[in-house]
Design brief:
- By secondary structure, the protein is α+β, with helices and mostly antiparallel strands.
- It has 31 helices and 27 strands.
- It is elongated and about 120 Å long.
Amino acid sequence: MEPAPTSDPAVVDAAVGAPWSVPPDDVLAALGSEAGGLSGADAATRLAEVGPNRLPPPQRDPLWKRVLVHFDDVLIYILLVSAVLKAILGDWVDFTVILAVAVINAAIGFVQEGRAESALEGIRNMLSVHAEVRRDGAWARVDADDVVPGDVVRVRSGDRVPADVRLLQATNLRVEESALTGESVAAAKSVDAVGADAGVGDRSSMLFSSTLVAAGQGVGVVTATGTATEIGRIQTMISEVRSLATPLTRQLDRFGKLLAVLILAMAVVMVVIGRVVHDFSVPDLVSASIGFAVAAVPEGLPALVTITLALGVQQMARRRAITRKLPAVETLGSVTTICSDKTGTLTKNEMTARTVRTAARAFAVAGAGYAPVGDVTLADGGRHADLPDDRDLAALATVMMLCNDARIVPDASDADGWRLVGEPTEGALRTLGMKAGVDPTGWRRVAVVPFESENKFMATLDADPDGGLHVHVKGAPDRVLDRCTTQLGPDGGSEPLDRGSWDGQIDALGGQGLRVLAAARRPAAEGTTSLDVADVADGLELCGLVGIVDPPRPEAVEAIAECRDAGIRVKMITGDHAGTALAIGREMGIVDAPDGSSAPAVLTGPELEEMSTERLRQVVRDVDVYARTSPEHKIRIVSALQSHGEVVAMTGDGVNDAPALTQADVGVAMGIKGTEATKEAAEVVLADDNFATIERAVKEGRRIYDNIRKSVLFLLPTNGAQSLVILVAVLFGLTLPLQPVQVLWINMITAVTLSLALAYEKAEPDVMRRAPRDPKASILDGAYVRRILLVSLLIGGATILLFYVERAQGVPLAEAQTTAVTMLALGQLAYLFNCRFLDRPSLTLDVLRGNRVVWVSAATLLALQAVFVYAPFMHSWFDSAPIALAEWGKTLGLALVVFLLVEVIKWVGRRWTARDHVPALVERHDGQH
């Protein structure tokens, strides 16, 4: 029978909008359900109304739009206009070649982005697959997609919650919600209503979609599915955050627009002079103008950048990082600040006992995670603990081992070889007992008082191998201490409880960011078979305290140091409490010693709420730890950093990180523990969930940027020399040394062969000892611009000289033009070796080693040029002609002269500029950039 509807409209509104704040019966009534669940027919009707319980995939642009976006470049526009003009003039060969270059460039970018997206498909596994629901009065297992509001569901330890659920029953229920709240400790759940204004982490009467049940079991009614869940709400928030352009795309856009204006202006000047001064015909002027535009446009540049970035994507994939957008790799190379979630990213998300305190001594516990590997030693002397000699430790470890529902089992699939079954805190205590050498064999549990949030402790009645009965208690220190009258001495004897001393130790451990649990015991009377809360109200003997921490990833600590060497600040943004966050920050090297700054060492979410945007901008660069944060806070933090011109990377694995990942210049998600929403929001997904991979990604990004700069420095003199040849001919009324289609040929073969070789150059030795480059700075500084102009004059001058000398000697036009094309090809080949080392001299044997692709490219260039010179079909297409060995000798000799003169230019540049274009090295851990 359906429950009677609630008559109070306010209660109905609360039951629907804030179900955590009203009693369970009111929620059932508002949803038109009952404790016995829905009927199959009712569930089917509701499914048709609300739709499947899943998050919709992100809407993709249509295929035509994803293809056309790769033509959206001002330099490509010039090529397309040139192709149209050639079609109007009827020059279909020229039209076809020009158009092919533009299409090839677009195809490369489209295919590479498609490959990266395909690689990501394999790690989408956030939503649960099945759920237990009560239908037609019986429990049934259904697809999670078929769960509807009003369904009564049951969850147990290890289950993923299929939807947002209001609890109806809860037994020792604790849920791992770090993916949603950032809390590394499992949240205790109960049926009792909480305030309507409670935050997500405080809604103890609710279970949220895709969170993990750590312990206990519960029954509840589904209140929201799909996009209406808490995860769905956050995913919707992502769509409201704007994405930023990357530094490289901004630079190339500015450069392309400037170059386009310059090309058009020079073409107009050339047409005016050619018509007015030299009386060229209109068709000749149009052809010359197109030739000049084709010569001046570095049409290989977009393709070159795309290919270089694509190579970076492949390199990062081999290093366990999947890049979803090509420019994101380069953006990492210009990052100045990394904002990272703590749980599971900087830390292992595996609770670990770090220290043990007894009445007279302290013990250090080595190891991390749930693998029972690591020594327990005296903190002062370093002596290995021994249970027969250290009876206080033996008693505490025995209590923690027996008063425990977790199990640590071997698992070859886990990186550490062991897997936790149960709640993380109990797993840490179980592992402590195993490290200490406690053997639970022969012990038998007789009765248990399960952990409840009201009591904050767990108690067991256990029988030892000899049949003796013992009460063991573990829990929150204050609750356990209230029940103790004595404490265990180092020799195993009992002594009066020193409450003040224990309170001091609890505060000290808490100040280190440790979660503290206490252990106590007492003997039980023979024949006892039951245990309740009243049986442990007093008379217990305190064994000691255990400090537990979510340990840092060792590789993350090293990666943070590497980032700071590279002038990159790391900021930790977490949902944990301030003390825990600050302690972890100091341990990982994120937080420096106090320097007298007015900024606090840690900022909490409530403090951020009270801060104005202006005040946050004043302190955001000086604060390295942010605690108790929400998704909205993270977006504010990232935006405040960006207001200072910082290039921000945001890393994380939880749903709560996704909006800030989208806001950041580059978002980095964890692929194993990361949620679906986070992966979709990120530009880079780490397949190994390893923060250290980010440091390698930064290094790869810097190498890619260096190689793009080398390629641009190589490519632009190529175009400069070609355009100079045509410009000089028109301005002085001379015969054109190059035809437009020949210009396109030399552009195409050098861009596809020689410039691509520089994409494979290895990283410079100091690449991770430089300050982050200014994203607003030009890709080329003044020294490089001067070099481009001088090299253009050298190669262009050599080509003009050779062409007109050949013509003066009576060489036919086709042969002289072919010799000029060959001069350009060999001159650029020689200049390639100059560009391998931007500042160091290339007059060394090292220039011949270290990049096999250079030689492959050189051989390919020579082979293609030989086809251009000697293949009859090329003579028809490109108006080329065979040349003699003497012409090859002349071009080779002039190419060698070009190489030597460029080395002189580099030497003069080093003397004049004092390497002012090379970023300064960063002092280790200076904390500033």
